[in-house]
Structure formats: structure tokens, C-alpha cells
Amino acid sequence: MKSKLYLLLLVPVLTLASCKKWTIADDSNRIVGNWQISYVERQGNYGSEPVYTGYEGGEFYFSNNGSARFSDSYGEMNGSWRMIPRSDGYNGGSNSLELRLYDYYNDDAIEWEFYAVEFTGNRMIGYMNRYGYEYRYEFRRY
Questions:
Q1: CA distance 70 to 67
Q2: What is the pTM assigned to this prediction?
Q3: Residues 25-84 pLDDT 10s
Q4: Contact 113, 98 (CB under 8 A)
Q5: Domain ranges of the chain
Q6: How far is CA 15 from CA 2, 7, 90, in A?
Q7: Where are the beta strands (DSSP E) in 1-142?
Q8: C-alpha angle with apex 114: 82 to 27, nearest 5 degrees?
Q9: Which of 17, 69, 108, 122 has the smallest number of CB atoms closer than 10 Å to its CB?
Q10: CATH number of 27-141
């Protein structure tokens, strides 16, 4: 009788132990380094079109401590970045990215919130909703 009881208790333990644990990918370390915008497009009701942001000629630098910098021939902006895990409840989720950069001298700012970020090789692709449009930013590491 005792052996049957132990077997009965062992089945739920083994069942729970065999379940796959879904985790959110931590891409925080993949963003560290130098990046440039290579392409931006805006999706609308009638298709997509390329967009010029004014930041294509510069360099974004993401440090491992959460600080960030953008520099080009016009100057430099400093600030921070933050990767936020997002769970969709099915596939473990993805990460979103908040980027805040400021140049107080020239009164310039970047305040971007990408609701999803993907990494493929030396590419980072961020998706953003703004002003009723869907934007796709593609960055290249160099």
C-alpha cells in the first residue's frame, strides 16, 4: 500500500519537473557596442515607404551599464537605454527597448520606445508605433 502511495505522489512531481519553462530572452548584452541606422520604413494603409530620420549619419553607442550616446558631425547626445522583457504568454515573449538621449546645448532629444526588438547577426530591428504609423528601424553593428 505504501509503495502505491509513493508512486501516486511521484507522478505529479515528475509531470511538473518535465514541463518546459518558458523564459524571456535577455538581449541586454547583445545591444552593447556601436550601431548605425541603416534603414527606416513607415508602414501605412497603402504600403510602406522609406523614412529619413536625420540620425542615419551618426553612431549610436550602447554601454553595458545602461548609458547610451549618439554622435555625428553636429554634436553628441547622451542618455540611457533600457531593455524591458515583455511576455506574450505563449512563446515566452520578447524585449522592448527604451532609448533616451539628450543634447541640452543644441536643444535636441531622442525619445524612442520600440515595443519589440529582434537581433539577427549584426542587425538589430526595432518596431515602433508613432503618429498612427508602424515604423521599422534597422540598425547595423560595426
A1: 11
A2: 0.76
A3: 456 689 999 999 999 999 988 899 999 999 999 999 999 999 999 999 999 999 999 999
A4: yes
A5: 27-141
A6: 20, 12, 20
A7: 33-44, 47-50, 59-62, 67-72, 75-86, 94-103, 108-120, 123-130, 133-141
A8: 50
A9: 17
A10: 2.40.128
